[in-house]
Amino acid sequence: MSFIENLEAVEQRIAAACARCGRSIDSVNLLAVGKKHAPEVIQDAVDAGVTVIGENRIQEARQKIPLCSSLLDWHLIGHLQSNKTILAVEMFTMIHSVDSLRLLEKIDSACGDVGKSMPVCLQVNVSGEGSKSGLKPDDVLSVLEGAGALYNVDIVGLMTIPPFTEEVEDARPHFVALRELRDQLREDSGFELPELSMGMSRDFEVAIEEGATWVRIGSILFGKR
Ligand SMILES: *Cc1c(COP(=O)(O)O)cnc(C)c1O
């Protein structure tokens, strides 16, 4: 299958998931995840009309971005070490994976240095699974409160990665938990948090049914890594 055929299939599945739950297709953004794929492969996505690519590693993005179309926006979806925030701020137009107030402060100050504002999502470990990075649900409110004094970061929402299980339906309670946490934080913090970054190749339809506004999809678009 070519990239464009894969993209059309994904777009149809997104539309069908939206139809099932009465959402508008425009409320769901597709982030094509290009990690481990070469610039030539990314170009297939550009040719098919993709405008935003997700990457999870700074080093890889740093090598790849200069070799790809300048029309693309790049989003960071992986863990960011605080000593790499300047690089991240220069390369990316959104960061989905902020997991501490300290990192948020670093991003804010790096943005100040380069004169830029950065939309970010706070990554939450809703399942409590030990191997996953992300804030504990109970710690998110204090990060939002601490962010009140930061003017170069715009906290637009929450992100999560559910634990991997055989059954796709097992992801649903984690997506529900992220949405409910967002609804609670909206009341408690005054932050709107309109974005929910959740859902990957195997579970994006469930995520859309539970309110995802960004689905991060790699393997079913680009093929195996
Ligand atoms: C790799 C990755 C994805 C995409 O995963 P697929 O299963 O290939 O769709 C989404 N989100 C994050 C954080 C990732 O690292």
- CATH superfamily heading: Alanine racemase
> How many structural domains in the coordinates?
1
> What's the CATH C level?
Alpha Beta
Number of helical regions:
9
Summarize the topology.
Blueprint: H1 3-21, E1 29-33, H2 39-47, E2 52-55, H3 58-64, E3 73-76, H4 85-91, E4 94-98, H5 101-114, E5 118-123, H6 140-146, E6 153-159, H7 172-189, E7 195-197, H8 204-209, E8 214-217, H9 219-222
Helix pairs in contact: 4-5
Bound molecules: pyridoxal-5'-phosphate.
Pyridoxal-5'-phosphate binds at residues 33, 35, 56, 77-78, 161, 200-201, 216-219.
Give a verbal description of the structure.
There is one protein chain. This protein is of the alpha/beta class and 225 residues long. It has one domain (3-222): Alanine racemase (TIM Barrel). 40% of the residues lie in helices and 17% in strands. The protein is built from nine helices and eight strands. It has helices at 3-21, 39-47, 58-64, 85-91, 101-114, 140-146, 172-189, 204-209, 219-222, and strands at 29-33, 52-55, 73-76, 94-98, 118-123, 153-159, 195-197, 214-217. It has an eight-stranded parallel beta sheet. The longest helix is centred in the first third of the chain and has 19 residues, at 3-21. The protein is globular. The protein starts with a helix and ends with a helix. The mean pLDDT is 97. The site of pyridoxal-5'-phosphate has 12 residues, from strand 8.
